[in-house]
Amino acid sequence: MNDLLRNKWRAVTPAIMGLLASVFTTCVSGMVLAKEAAAGDTDNTEVNDPFEPMNRAIFSFNLGFDKVILRPMAVGYRAVVPAPARESATNFLDNLESPVIFLNDILQGKPSRAGATVARFGINTIIGFFGFFDPAGDMGIERHDEDFGQTLGAWGTGSGPYLMLPFLGPLPPRDTVGFVADIFTDPMTYILWNHRTANLALYGADVVDQRHQVIDEFDELEKSSIDYYAAIRSLYTQRRNDLIRDGESDLENMPDFDDDGVTTAP
Amino acid sequence: MFQRISLFPATLILLVAITMAWQTRAMVSSDPSEFVTDLTVQAFATLRDTSLGDSERFAKFRLLLSQSVDLPRVGRFVMGANWRRATPAQQAEYQSLFKDYIIAAYAGRLRDYTDAAITVKTTTPMDKGEYLVSSLIKRPGNPEPIHVDWRLREVEGKLLVLDMTIEGISMALTQRSEFASIIQQNGGDINVLLTRLREAAAPLDAGEQVSITR
User: Is B193:B176 a contact under the CB 8 Å cutoff?
Assistant: First the structure.
């Protein structure tokens, strides 16, 4: 279920970028507004969602869009395309992400992870037929995920207030900034700048690829949720924090199971 | 006479065997890493056991979980600050509904991994007799293993699960956030949560949540 939250939507046409620019401005003002509320928001139990009514409305819209368009496409894709072909498509799309991952490895000062990204890109592009296969993974150089939102988090930037964007899903200010930065630092954006059809096709492929990987997980989650909106919000926040920590267990901020909400802690 | 002599070593062997079996049992329940491996292996085996009907499978899984998870404590934690606001009757009903709900939730989460292999990476002791057991769950045909952390606490010499964290997502924290939200969305009415829990637990009674077929 995590892959959908990875925000690797990448190839976006200049037209959509205009829309994003306006969203971006809104977000920055939102970020300033909620700066004090965001102080120390690493605690997973704290909910920072001042725009909840608006977010819930957009969430319902996104859910409708998913039910009518996105999920059926993903289900159809899974039904029609055999598993090895789908896996190759995932590998190919993942490989295209390497430059952005590499850049953020470097920005976070993690040379060994940056080295792994370069090695993966080289091996998978050459031996893995332009990234359709993942021989690097078989050699034990496993894939890892980075984006500029994570880099900002690693630098100590709080996520800011939770924000649900139409079509795009949860993108609090920090991750919206990261999302836009990822587009502009992705070589594919420039390679396909004048090829709108190819650009849209790649974008669509990426969305369907990611959605189809988590069909069962999200079905299950929706079925077992008491409040689906709150579940997704908690999930997104926790997952992003986990990615920022590069998957290390957060021993410092473990929830206290003797805490029934009325602690006397300072 | 011959028979009498041979009986002694046989008895001795039996005694040793029983003692060893007893010790192994004790070891399993007090070693956090083995506890987790044991629990998941049993849970996966139960969930994919086609020799059982849906309701039998569910009953077995339910028994396994109610023995291995500190349900009252987790229930109280997940309720958060609303616990104190609830009447004793609401608290009692909540705990009973929560038990059904969390067993269904665990079954649902674990069902995707029933053919998977678990490897324990590290065990970190923490305060209050707690342990964090870090494990990797690898599914056949899926190269990327899933990182699952198990939060355990030793209560009266017995290990119990407090939480399961999949790729950084804690079940207890997610539920705590959901429960607080549903109560808050309904003007602080705790009965709304109880109604929702009852609805969520309903298909469970039919064994639906632990069925293998999707």
Answer: no
What number is the average pLDDT over the span B194-202? 85
B23 three-class SS: helix
CB A229 within 8 A of CB A56: yes
Yes or no, beta carbons of B143 and A134 under 8 Å apart: yes
pTM of the predicted model as reported, rounded to 2 decimal places: 0.81
Tally the C-alpha atoms within 13 A of residue A126's C-alpha that lie toward its C-beta.
6
Residues of chain A with confidence (pLDDT) below 70: 1-46, 260-266
Q: Is the CB of residue B164 less than 8 Å from the CB of residue B135?
A: no
- Say how far residue B119 (Cα) sits from the centre of its chain: 17
Q: Does A255 contact chain B (CB < 8 Å)?
A: yes
Q: Taking a C-beta distance cutoff of 8 angstroms, is the pair A153, A175 a contact?
A: no
B182-to-A161, B32, B88, B104 alpha-carbon distances in Å? 19, 35, 20, 19
Backbone dihedral region of A47: left (phi > 0), alpha (psi from -120 to 50 degrees) or beta? Answer: beta
What is the layout of strands, in order, in the sheet containing B130-138? B117-126, B130-138, B146-155, B158-166, B169-170
Distance of CA B172 to the CA centre of its chain: 12
Residue A66 is given by DSSP the state I
Residues of B in contact with A213 (CB under 8 A): none
| A90 phi and psi angles, rounded to 5 deg | -60, -45
Planar angle of CA A175, A179, A184, nearest 5 degrees: 145
What is the distance between the alpha carbons of residues A229 and A224, in angstroms, rounded to a whole number? 12
In this prediction, residue A196 carries a pLDDT of: 87
Q: Is A238 within 8 Å of B170 when comparing Cβ atoms? A: yes
